[in-house]
Structure formats: C-alpha cells, structure tokens
Amino acid sequence: MNFQNTRRRGEDGVAMVINFLLSNARLVLGVGGAAILGIATLAVKRLIERAGRAADDEKVEQKITESWEELSLVSASPTLIQREIEGVVINHVAKTTKQQKADLCQPQKSNCDSKPKKLQLCALTLQERLQQFYCTRAALDPQEVQRAQALALDICTEVHGFLHSRHPDMPLEEMSIGGSLLDNLQVICADHACLLVPLQLEASLWRLVPGEETLLTHPLHWMVRRLNIEYFPRGRSYWDRYLVGGYLSSEALVNWFNKAVMETVNWPTIGSSMDCLIRPALGGSDLRLEISPLDENGSESGDQPVFVTILPLLREGDVVLTAQPELTSPWVNAWHLSLYPWETRRLVELDAADNGCRIKTLKILKAVCRLNHALRPMEAAPLVNLILHLSDRESDWSDSSLDVRFQQCITELIGYLEQGALHSHFKPAVNLLNSLSEDQVDQMGFMLYCAVSEPEILLV
C-alpha cells in the first residue's frame, strides 16, 4: 500500500475491512475468537496508521514494533477472553472505526490549515495533559463548593434546631459538616456532604470494643458494650433504649433517626425558606437528603442537586465509629470503624512535608474512575491506600513527577487487581477490593492494560 499517495483511500479500506471482520467474527469464530479478532484488528489498525504517518521517518520500524508490543500486552490476559469480554473490545474498535469514518467524510482542509493543529495536539505531553485534566475536570469551582457547603450548613442548622427542640434531653456533641467536600477531595462536581451527628456516651457505662475482640472478628466492625448494668440498671443512660443484647445497636439508632428526622421534619417548608426543594432520597438504608435548587418561578432549576447524608457517630480519641447498616449488615449491633480521617490526615501530612502532589494525583484518579464506565466501581478508599502504599516506597512526589506517579499508579493498580487484594494501609487485614465482582475486576483490568501504553485514553 502506498501510504504517501493514497493514505486516505488506505484508511477507508482499513475501516471497511475492520467493519466486515467484526460484523461476521462472532458468527464464524464464536465468542473467544471474536474477542481475539477484535484485539488483533485494533492493534493492526494502529500499526498501519502509524506506519502511514511515518513513511518518511527513520523510526518506522520502531513504531511498528511498538504496535505489536501493544498487541501482545492487550492479548496477555486469557482471563478476559474466558470472561467473554469481546463486547468491550468490539465496542471499542467499532467506536474508533466509526469516528475515523466520520473524520474522513468531513471536507478536507488544506495542509496549511490542518498541520498546525496536528502539531499543537502532538506537542502536549502526558504531564501537560494531566495538568489540563486536573484543572478542567478534577478541580472544582470554588463558587460551586461554597454553594454546596452553604446548603449543607443550612441543613445542619435545621436538624440541630429540630433535635434540640423536640428531644432536648438527647446528649449530643456539636454537629458539623464533614467528608470530601470539606477536605477539598471532591471531584467533577460538588454534589455530596456529610452531616456529622456525634453521640455523647457516659465513659463509665459504655466501652468501644475493637472488631478483632468481638465474635465478628472483622477489624472494621466494632461494637459498643453496655457496662456495669448490674450496678447501673437499664434506663440510667439515654442510649439504653437502643440496646440489643447488651450492645448499642447502630441499626436501631438509624431507624429512629429515619422516623424522627427524615419522616417528621417539615422539609417542604424548610426548602421554601432556602429556595430549594428538599426531599429524603429513596433507595437506600442511609439517611440521605436530596437538595435541588429552584429557579425564579419556583421550579427545579436543573442544577446539580446536593446530597447530604446524616451520619450518627461515636468518637473516642482518634477512633471514629459510624452508624452505617449498609456497611455492617447483617449485624444489627455492629458499628463501622471509619478509616477516612486517618487516611486523609496522613495524605495532608505527607504533602505538607515535601510539597507533594499526592492529593492532586488522588483527585485525578478519582475523576478518571468516575468518568470511565469500566472504572466506575472503583471507590475512593482503594485509590487513597494505593497512593499511601506507593508513598512508602517512592520519595519524589514533586509536581514535576506527576506523570511518572500517575503511570506508576496505573501499573500498581493492575497488580492489585490481578492479586484480587489491596490491603488497607492502616488495617492490613482489610481487603479494599473485596466488594468487586470478577467481571468488574476483568473490565477494569482490561481498561488499565490498554492505558499502560496509552495513558491518554483515561483523560478523554
């Protein structure tokens, strides 16, 4: 094929061949064969494109070698073939081919017009792309953050006033707003916050029992035991009404908050005073409010709603236990040990010590996972611990090494997915990938394998 004189015709021919092969691959070759063919045709297509663009370049042979290395890398996971991921591969190839056809069908501009754009695109390094992605996608607009925080604080004031007037004898510490919104770790949009409701326990009547010392033997499932009940009978503490089997039940407490706050508070009236529509969010066991701004006509403005989760918790020293039955089910007495304060504090300390880019890297990874369908099941906790583990081995976290650390995080995450385990930095017995299914692991692994050679595909 003469790439110098018939490049456009050659690209169109490649697209037609790819479309024909993929449309008949599953019928002729079956599931596994279609997946292999999809990967192979994608790599061959890239090989031809690179060879065509570099016909007069002395590095043609090197580019061809890189293309075949991509083919061997992507094809190196037989588990993906066995899991029938041919749909992912074929969709990826078909989407690329369709876009190529659309580009070829558009009127071609002169070389003087198109060449500077190509040069400008190619001039962007991975470091520049990461900085651009952080500024446009990961970092939030300060006004948007301020608006979400103001809404969350208004809800905090209303809930505090309601509990103080209706249940004045309930021993509570000062309520506050917490979570990623307050710690500047939220990405894409400022859409959720936590209303922390700390309970006040009598030290002589209650003891927080670590998960390893309970029958559950789970390091994150703690229990709160009632003490000296023979000397201080039931009823001495306000929280005795939520006792189940001698332990303070997080599920019973959440059920009470659901009835006393979520279902009793006049949210429509409060919402009208805040120019918002406030309603309890359905479809979960957590105490969550959805706040939608209203326009001048009193209708929903269409802006991103803000979700505020009411979170009862217990504090003792640096231990924070939260009442989250969705995390501790089916154990009605279990409380969840939150590692979020420890992890966040450690990241801030490390970055402050060397003016590092750990938090920036974390926010980029969180934004990538949220925007990429295959990576969406990856939660924030594994990404935080990924960076903490990497910080134990790598000392250079300067802003100039952002691209190196980003690529290293991708490689490290692939290794953890292959092992099926990413252990918590503070609680090594906890596997943070335990909630992922095998199909989710395979899809994430495939996407990250592709990103090893072309990390830019994660920044689209």
From TrEMBL:
GO biological process: mitochondrion organization; positive regulation of mitochondrial fission
Protein name: Mitochondrial elongation factor 1
Major site of localization recorded for this protein: mitochondrion
Species in which this protein is naturally found: Takifugu bimaculatus
Keywords: Membrane, Mitochondrion, Mitochondrion outer membrane, Nucleotide-binding, Phosphoprotein, Transmembrane, Transmembrane helix
Transmembrane segments: 20-44
Keyword Ribosomal protein listed: no
GO molecular function: nucleotide binding
Mitochondrial dynamics protein MID51-like C-terminal domain: residues covered: 144-342
One GO location term (cellular component): mitochondrial outer membrane
Start and end residues of each Mab-21-like HhH/H2TH-like domain: 357-444
Location of the protein in the cell: Mitochondrion outer membrane
InterPro entries named among the record's database cross-references: Mab-21_HhH/H2TH-like, MAB21L/cGLR, MID49/MID51, MID51-like_C
Mode of membrane association: Single-pass membrane protein
